[in-house]
């Protein structure tokens, strides 16, 4: 299979921002973008300003190229992954922990997250064009709204408010519908950051480094699933072995195993002695028989 074999530093220079493809080197003065902050093939900083104003299509194309290069996939692979992500629907994590103290990266990343979340199509879940359906009932919606209000009162900041201006596909009342909501400046001791909301609410936290992020994850009493998105094999291994969680995902958004593996929650995310799916599910519905024999 063909793959990119050129200098990854040129990819960062081409995009005009750090993609952190070389790990810690990208944060040091040795970073190529620090020394030559202009696209490859051009000479001097002045040339980067000669381009005309980028169109909306151009900006979206650049963002797509950034994501593709961060994960190191080709165009055809990226299209296949995108189609698969659109087709699959399922639960995702409630808390997002962004590691690092680069405010510029944080703001760019959150702008992209908020813009994508705002475009989610809400409506009847049986409609193939709909990406997110209603919540369970009125009581559940009231509970979710309570978590949002609690977060605001405890100091969280609304990046995206799904309570206002919700557009529902089809002629449906908003009785059971709630738009995607993003809360920033959340801490692990807040109610919205320590309890399972089970609603379209993302609580965003920040950690200085991976050790702090792992400590935050293990402090929570719930341990159904945790995922890390990284290009560092070392960080992935540290996360895999140190995080106390039933399901660990590495560069996987929906941390749910195939049916022949157990769905392994831990701590307060698990009740009983056997998990669902896999051999443990078969054991739950069967009784063991032991035969002891001796022949003379």
How would you briefly describe this protein structure?
With 296 residues, the protein is an alpha/beta fold. The chain has ten helices and ten strands. It is globular and about 90 Å long.
Report on this model:
The protein is an alpha/beta fold. It is built from ten helices and ten strands. The strands form four sheets. The chain has a four-stranded mixed β-sheet, with helices on both faces. The protein is globular and about 90 Å long.
List strands and helices in order, with pairings.
Elements (H helix, E strand, L loop, with lengths): L7 H8 L16 H4 L20 H16 L3 H13 L7 E5 L3 H16 L3 E2 L14 H16 L3 E4 L7 E2 L11 E4 L6 H4 L6 E7 L2 H10 L2 E2 L1 E4 L4 H10 L4 E4 L15 E2 L10 H7 L12
